[in-house]
Amino acid sequence: MMMSLGQFVFSLSTVAYQDFQRQSEWKHPNTSRVGERDAHQYIGPGDDTITLSGWMAPAFAGDPASFNDLREMADAGDAYVLVEGTGRIYGQFVVTHLTEGKSIFLEDGLPLRIEFSLSLKRVDLGDQINLQPDQQDNDIIDWEDIDLE
To answer: Does residue 31 sit within a domain?
Structure first.
């Protein structure tokens, strides 16, 4: 298992990504001042976006039907806990974009190569999952330490 998003597992048999990009933002709004530089104030974290991209060769590895599963998850609009195979918890994420491109076709239309990009955005939904602050984003955790109720 490379990573899981809720019950969906990223792996060679489903969708194996080759590129992981994370973009984190912090909010610093400004107020104009006469004769001075703008005043800035830190007001908290902003968006946290993860993009997983890569390609699969369905004849060898990967299941194109996995994209349908991801689309159904996106259609539901629910947030899912994103956990790396190492045990690192990133938080709760929603699916915001899924791009799929097919190329190198057989005569029946079956693609031999499928490129994809999946964008996830972090959302904070309160105490739906009870993680201790030091277990979010950084630490490898022990599942027995987490209260999922």
So the answer is: no
pLDDT tens digit sequence for 54-86: 999 988 888 999 999 999 999 999 999 999 999
* pLDDT level of residue 87 (50, 70, 90 thresholds): very high
Question: How far is the C-alpha of 70 from the C-alpha of 146, rounded, in Å?
Answer: 26
> Do 18 and 62 contact (CB within 8 A), yes or no?
no
Cβ pair 70, 14 in contact under 8 A: no
Q: What is the C-alpha separation between 121 and 63, in angstroms, rounded?
A: 24
Which structural domain, as residue segments, surrounds residue 138? 3-25+43-145
